[in-house]
Design a protein that fits this description.
Largest sheet: 6 strands, mixed
Order of helices and strands: HHHHHHHHHHEEEHEEHEHHHHEHEHEEHH
Helix content: 55-70%
CATH architecture of the domain at 25-331: Up-down Bundle
CATH topology of the domain at 25-331: ABC transporter transmembrane region fold
Oligomer: single chain
Shape: elongated
Bound molecules: adenosine-5'-triphosphate, magnesium ion
Distance between the termini: 43 Å
Strand content: 5-15%
Radius of gyration: 35 Å
Length: 609
């Protein structure tokens, strides 16, 4: 068990080069450069107004307070209020713009990532768990949003305050500023050192959160099996371990951030205290005025506060950099089904002639967890071994063979969900590798071995392959698939919500919806993978009649374990261990092939029984 556990938790991947993070985020900001510039302008207005308050303080002390000039004091107070109003308005605009940009950028990143995810092949999803993808999608993009929207804006504002504050300090007193500058490297050193640590650890921690997501996703989806086998305690334990792994990864990050923040605070206040001490001596010796010292202190505190802010948000920004790396990794996953640079097109009327020449194929195998490149895949055992086959337009071909012979795999290959190791598959004489995968897949209507139902209404489920089909067309397809009988019993008919993965349907009902979907899709080639296996004998008989009508004029490949289905075919192909070992009609195969004879006689026995 410990073996399988350790392999279930992927190794931390090598972080991608960090220079790519900034340009990548920048590319999402580029379309909104007007807003970005406006935000920066408001940032400067706000900060400069804020900085000029220090001069107000100086005037207040030197000209109003110390000279006991109350009229001047009133003027200065009004000036201060005016400046504050200006800086507050600028803050409003900056805050609004920056938060808006944060939301917008993360929305755009989600759109881009999702768009890319849709292009990745089933092989990719066999390697990476969908729960983890979802976590990257939500948690990482959310982190990025909060950083662009608030932390980044805080950091920018603080940086402007630091620079501006230092300039104003230099104007006020060069000597004291020189002292401050001595302290700056002391404060910046830890910011950069610990900031980098936080980024590394934060990536690790987001990876662990991804594991968590993947685990919850799987166990809750399979809650039936979890409860039926009383696996809850074990799940609790396994989940606990993953939660603790998240905690563990977070602990390191929190430690470094806490050290960072407290150290910067301490060093800043220490520097201020020392400078006050020196400054107070200067006032006593009348080298500077009390107002100047007040203004200087005002700036020093402001700068220290800004430095503290930077040290706090830099950890957050580094976290976002870690999250960005994970998103970049997803977006840069190469699309493993290569598309020809100039895809060929099909004739307007596809005849549905299929030919396979010496097709060899093995599923990619995930590299073992301890190898460096966890995402790389290598070829495994050959599942299709040198298969050659010609199917005429409109022919009805049945595929029989033992479980694991490679029948469903053949369907996957026809639709080009995987790349062949060698050999050619052609549709109407055109190599499918030179077609765009979308165009190719539009030629097939598939009823898969495991019916797929989406969490939406009957109507939407049936018209999945033809979203613009009318209600009448959907109803006609459902009547043909013998699905209308049970749909009529639903309280909301075709609008009935079918539940996630169709949990509110029986196996046979799901299958009939899947058949209705294929009927409605109306494609030149039909791929039926045990399309009627979950039906009772009566419904099967009726659905078969519907399928017979559908098959007319269409090339059809039927995978079947039942003799009755096979008998109707023009030709029967017998597959064994990835090879085609015989082909012919039922009568011919009964004569020539022992494997088929065995299949047929056992089937007849069970059917008679
Ligand atoms: N996604 C996959 N990744 C790796 N190996 C796979 C994958 N899918 C199937 N296989 C392997 O390929 C072989 C052929 O599987 P396939 O699903 O094509 O069999 P089948 O003939 O359809 O069997 P059945 O009648 O049970 O449906 C099996 O040995 C299986 O282990
Ligand atoms: Mg199969």
């Amino acid at each position: 068990m410990s073996q399988s556990l350790s392999s279930a938790v992927p190794q931390d991947r090598k972080p991608s080069p960090k220079r790519s993070v900034l340009p990548w985020n920048g590319s999402f900001l580029r379309p909104y450069r007007g807003k970005v510039i406006a935000a920066i302008v408001f940032l400067f207005i706000g900060s400069l107004a804020w900085l000029s308050l220090g001069q107000g303080v100086r005037l207040m002390v030197d000209e109003g307070f110390l000279r006991e000039n109350s009229e001047r004091l009133n003027e200065i107070i009004l000036l201060v209020i005016g400046i504050t109003a200006l800086s507050s308005s600028a803050i409003f605009c900056r805050f609004y713009l920056m938060t808006w940009l944060g939301e917008r950028v993360s929305a755009d990143i989600r759109l881009k990532v999702y768009d890319h995810l849709l292009k990745l092949s089933p092989g990719f999803y066999a390697r990476l768990r969908t729960g983890e993808v979802i976590s990257r999608f939500t948690a990482d993009a959310t982190l990025l949003q909060s950083v662009v929207g608030s932390s980044l804006s805080m950091a920018l504002r603080a940086s402007v305050t630091v620079v501006g504050g230092l300039v104003m300090m230099a104007i006020t007193s060069l000597k004291l500023t020189a002292l401050v500058l001595l302290a700056v490297p002391l404060v910046l050193g830890p910011i950069f050192f610990f900031g980098r640590k936080v980024r590394e650890l934060s990536r690790k921690s987001q990876d662990r959160v991804g594991d968590l997501g993947a685990y919850v996703d799987e166990s809750l989806h399979e809650i039936h099996t979890v409860q039926a086998y009383c696996h809850e305690d074990r799940d609790r334990q396994l989940f606990f371990e993953r939660v603790e792994a998240v905690m563990e990864a977070a602990r390191g990050r929190i430690k470094y951030r806490a050290i960072l923040i407290s150290l910067v605070m301490f060093l800043s206040i220490l520097a201020i205290a020392l400078i006050t001490w020196v400054g107070a001596k200067d006032v006593m010796s009348e080298a500077i005025s009390p107002g100047e010292l007040s203004a200087f202190m005002f700036y020093a505190v402001m700068v220290a506060g800004a430095v503290a802010t930077i040290s706090e948000v830099i950890g957050e920004i580094q976290r976002a950099a870690g999250a960005t790396e994970r998103l970049i990794e997803l977006v840069e996953t190469p699309i493993d089904i290569p598309v020809a640079p100039t895809p060929l097109s099909l004739p307007s009327k596809v005849r549905g002639e299929l030919s396979l020449k010496q097709v060899r194929f093995s599923y990619p195998v995930q590299a073992s967890a301890d190898s460096a490149e966890g995402m790389e895949a290598q070829a495994g055992v050959e599942v299709i071994r040198g298969l050659s086959l010609n199917i005429a337009p409109g022919e009805r071909v049945a595929l029989v063979g033992a479980s694991g012979a490679g029948k469903s795999t053949l369907f996957e290959l026809l639709q080009r969900f995987y790349v062949l190791d060698s050999g050619v598959i052609a549709l109407d004489g055109i190599d499918i590798a030179s077609l765009s995968p979308q165009l190719l897949r539009q030629q097939y209507a598939l009823v898969p071995q495991e019916s797929v139902i989406f969490a939406t209404s009957v109507l939407e489920n049936v018209r999945y392959g033809r979203p613009n089909a009318s209600l009448e067309e959907v109803q006609a397809a459902c009547v043909a698939a013998r699905a209308d009988e049970f749909i009529a019993d639903f309280s909301e008919g075709y609008q009935t919500y079918l539940g996630e993965r169709g949990v509110r349907l029986s196996g046979g009902q799901k299958q009939r919806i899947a058949i209705a979907r294929a009927i409605l899709a109306d494609r030149p080639v039909l791929l039926l993978d045990e399309a009627t296996s979950a039906l009772d004998a009566v419904s099967e008989q009726k659905v078969k009649q519907a399928l017979d009508v559908l098959m007319q004029g269409r090339t059809t490949l039927i995978i079947a374990h039942r003799l009755a289905t096979v008998l109707n075919a023009d030709r029967i192909l017998v597959m064994d261990k990835g090879e085609l070992i015989a082909s012919g009609t039922h009568g011919e195969l009964m004569q020539s092939n022992s494997l088929y004879r065995e299949f047929a006689s056992l089937q007849l026995l069970t059917e008679e029984a």
